[in-house]
Amino acid sequence: MAAGRIIPIRALAAAPEASRQRLRRWSQAAFFAFFVLAPVFDVLRYDLPAGHAWLLGFEWHAGLDDLLCVSKVAALGAVGRIFGRVILPVFALGGLLMWAAWRWGRLYCGWLCPHFWVVELINECMRRAGGRPTLWEPRPLPLQRADGRPIVPDRRWWLAAALLAVGCALVWAVVTLTYVLPPAQVYGDLLAGRPSRGEGIFIAVFTGLLALEFFFARHLFCRFACSVGVFQSLAWMANRAALVVGFRRERGAECAACDSACDHACPMRLRPRNIKRAMFTCTQCGLCVAACETTQRDNPRGPLLHWANGAAARDNEAAFRAPRFERNKL
């Protein structure tokens, strides 16, 4: 397989997968802290009572109030104000996200998204409870990890999974409310035990719905219902040279010594040793690569899964277009 150029994200290209996973955990924790604290410090939120947004500690007005008084602003100026203050920033942020996805895949999902962090946590609890990382897994996974450590099923982990789903949903509900109401008001009312009727209804309904989603359909939401994730996947699929998990198919026979550890490690329940279009919802979390590195640690030829981009990514796709009789030999 031809070597690709150096991956721009050096953390993905240079370090062993264990180090990349530590970096990913820290990035998830940092972004979750940002998600919780951004409204508190007026970094990013919309204040419904005041009728304006906050951005980086400053009040941000779209200037729409002046449109109610035609004497204050001309029609052309009004259109320019809406475009410059609302439409352009939104499209700029969306364009940046799509460019990153086109080049590197769903990095936001696997490395930053607070929802995906919850997916991984509850998957782990459920696997410890009954051997299945999700309720919809057709059969239990092997009772050992990629490094050989045993997993002893314990039904008490079902309680941990349920509490985690409800607890994370509650945190999400409260934090989401602070994005549209003053955080001091929301947290003050909760600490005093007297949230307003509207706050109470929102928190209760949002917590209930999200807890059900976390417990029953979290990875399915990421795969089929999250518009941010789907658009990233579409951008990624449009670039044949984008970062991808590659598989050294010429060494496929060496997988016989492994009990599909890469498949079992995937939080999205995908099969990493597959063509790119079958990995449409891959979040680039790298857990499959880490599992392969672990199971093949004594193999002098190294792991079979690896990060590939550029020419290496195109070669990885070309390998799947080989004649059927050649593929069956691998």
UniProtKB/TrEMBL annotation:
User: Where in the numbering of this chain does the 4Fe-4S ferredoxin-type domain appear?
Assistant: 90-129, 202-235
Q: Which UniProt keywords apply?
A: 4Fe-4S, Electron transport, Iron, Iron-sulfur, Membrane, Metal-binding, Transmembrane, Transmembrane helix, Transport
Q: What's in the GO CC field? A: plasma membrane
Ranges annotated as spanning the membrane: 29-46, 82-102, 157-181, 201-221
The record's section on SUPFAM superfamilies has: 4Fe-4S ferredoxins
Q: Name one GO molecular function term.
A: 4 iron, 4 sulfur cluster binding
Q: Which InterPro entries match?
A: 4Fe4S_Fe-S-bd, 4Fe4S_Fe_S_CS, Electron_Trans/Redox
Keyword Mitochondrion appears in the UniProt entry: no
Q: Name one Pfam family in it.
A: Fer4_5
Cited PANTHER family: FERREDOXIN-TYPE PROTEIN NAPH
Q: What is this protein called?
A: 4Fe-4S ferredoxin-type domain-containing protein
**What lineage is this protein's organism placed in?**
Bacteria, Pseudomonadati, Pseudomonadota, Betaproteobacteria, Rhodocyclales
